[in-house]
Amino acid sequence: MATTKSWLILFRHGPFGSSYAREGLDTALVMGAFDQNPTVIFEGDALLLLLKSANSDALSLKSISKGFSALPMYGIEQLCVRGCDLERLGLTPIDLSVPVEVLSDDDLRQYLHHADHVLSF
Asked: DSSP labels for 17-82?
């Protein structure tokens, strides 16, 4: 019987200027569809992907922020953010479109250490 490997998807880039966020979201949704259920961590400007008030209309770009709210429907329920990044951006978990676990830097190191596979976007 095969053992299940643990996956960690780490979002490090903001919503605009690259395709990293879209590629990461697509990867997470596919993994969820195949019952891999990765842990998803947002750090730095990637927290902006989760803002309730994210609006890309002014930039004429398609927002992917709403796609992140679909993650729990795909069985991906462990969504985390770094507390220091929330503070740096002047945000609280209430400002985000999905429920998140707030991590310390030590918590993040533990997640990274224990994951079998880490994908960074």
From this structure: SSSHHHHHHHHHHHHHHTT---EEEE-GGGGGGGBTT---GGGT----HHHHTTGGGGT---EEEE
**Which tens digit of pLDDT belongs to each residue from 30-47?**
999 999 999 999 999 999
> Would you state the structure tokens that stand for residue 94, as one six-digit string?
């209430």
Q: Where are the domains of the chain?
A: 7-54+61-120
What's the pTM?
0.88
pLDDT tens figures, 88-103: 999 999 999 999 999 9
Q: pLDDT over 90 for what percent of the chain? A: 76
Q: With contact defined as beta carbons under 8 Å apart, do 40 and 7 qualify?
A: no
Long-range contacts of 57-65 (CB under 8 A, 24+ apart): 59/16, 61/16, 63/15, 64/15, 64/21, 64/22, 64/25, 65/15, 65/97
Range 7-54+61-120 classified under CATH 3.40.1260.10: yes
